[in-house]
Design goal:
The chain is α/β, with parallel strands linked by helices and 280 residues long. The chain has a single domain (3-279), classed as Ribokinase (UDP-N-acetylmuramoyl-L-alanine:D-glutamate ligase, 3-Layer(aba) Sandwich). Helices cover 52% and strands 14% of the residues. A nine-stranded mixed sheet has the order 2-1-3-4-5-6-7-8-9, sandwiched between helices. Helix 2 runs parallel beside helix 8, helix 2 (42-52) packs parallel to helix 10 (252-265) and helix 9 crosses helix 10 (252-265). The longest helix is centred in the first third of the chain and has 27 residues, at 3-29. It starts with a helix and ends with a strand.
Length: 280
């Protein structure tokens, strides 16, 4: 075997072992993940966390933040169905989580679609998220702090188009930035890795992006000091579950069911044989 191929194989084996180790920790520890999220995604996010082994809490009332949020293991904030009434709770939860030393993850859904949404997302970015996960258009909008072409929550940019924007955003925010796409990109502003797992039909199921952000929160909860590796591992694990689900699915509805089942039943052999992560 050529040395370069040997190094790639060793790198894959290392990533696969790390991803499996984190999933095993997640299943053992069942971290409590608070999700302040949108009405469309609550069900799939909660079921994704449960099937992976985490404990979801869909608590978004500001009256509960001071009592509840200090006891969580990670926080996921998703602005999908954003309204002025929810913003104070998002801000408060991010501040409380940061003060308690708990990681929090931001999903800036359709960040560039309106001035209200962009301003809210930029304010949340300023509250020190550990990870920001979005599609290409969302990450470009945050990086440039500008409104842009968007099709609602759908991206009008491929993930690779957003690589420089992701690096810039990571450097300015201090967060790990993940860009979902045909290849998922994860960067700390310097190092860049790509996750090549998943199937295109996952885009036909609403809230799969929201669900993987919640899974990232769970993975970061069990390894907060290595957020880049935890983020890449969560994306690859979710992608593998989608691939395995697609082997049994007849369309988006059955893929949703089989994806959740595959995530619940995922074993080390599947992770080792299917995981595809590379340096970019």
């Amino acid at each position: 075997m050529e040395p370069s191929n040997l190094n790639k194989e060793q790198d894959q084996n290392s990533w696969a072992l790390n991803a499996w180790t984190l999933l095993s920790k997640l299943r053992d520890q069942s971290p409590l993940i608070q999700c302040i999220t949108n009405f469309v995604s609550m069900d799939l996010m909660a079921n994704t966390l449960l099937s992976a082994g985490a404990s979801p809490a869909m608590i978004h009332s500001i009256e509960e933040i001071q009592d509840f949020t200090p006891h969580i293991h990670a926080l996921c904030i998703n602005v999908g169905t954003l309204s002025p009434a929810w913003l104070p709770a998002m801000r408060e939860a991010a501040l409380v989580a940061d003060k308690a030393g708990k990681p929090w993850i931001l999903d800036p859904v359709a960040a560039g679609a309106s001035r209200f949404r962009l301003k809210a997302c930029l304010e949340l970015v300023g509250l020190k998220p550990s990870v920001i996960r979005g599609n290409g258009s969302e990450i470009i909008a945050l990086s440039k702090a500008s409104l842009g072409a968007t099709k609602g929550v759908d991206s009008s940019h491929e993930s690779m188009d957003a690589m420089e924007a992701a690096k810039s955003l990571a450097q300015s925010s201090g967060a790990i930035v993940a860009v979902s796409g045909a290849v998922d990109i994860i960067t700390d502003g310097h190092r860049v890795v790509g996750v090549h797992n998943g199937v295109s039909m996952m885009q036909k199921i609403t809230a799969t992006g929201c669900a993987v952000t919640a899974l990232i929160a769970a993975f970061v909860a069990v390894d907060p000091l290595h957020a880049l590796e935890a983020t890449a591992s969560a994306l690859s694990i979710f992608g593998i579950a989608g691939e395995m689900g697609m082997d049994m699915a007849k369309g988006p509805a059955s893929l949703r069911m089989h994806l959740i089942d595959s995530l619940y039943n995922l074993d080390q052999a599947a992770v080792s044989s299917r995981l595809k992560v590379s340096s970019l």
